[in-house]
Predict the structure.
Amino acid sequence: MTNKLLVGFFLHLVAKANGLFVPCIVQIEAIAAVVNSTKLPVNVMCMLELADFASLKSLGVKRISMGNFLFDALQEDLATRLSNIVQTNSFQPVFQPSH
């Protein structure tokens, strides 16, 4: 854990924060170190390499934020479907499974 991160933890405690948000952290050992270094509930952000929910819970993570990742995925799917509707001149793409 870096000194910058430790200073951030301290500042959160001083400010009487009710939780600690650590985005982009995915390594199990790093997550465990963060959880074990504070009494605050730890919140991580969903990332492709992030462990499953049960593992995060066992490490002591209290919350997982989705950020805008789910919204972006939905928007991408919508754009693809709309493009396919225009290309096929049909609403068949609406009823096909997304890829």
Remarks:
- Helices lie at 3-14, 28-36, 53-59, 69-88.
- Residues 69-88 form the longest helix (20 residues).
- The mean pLDDT is 89.
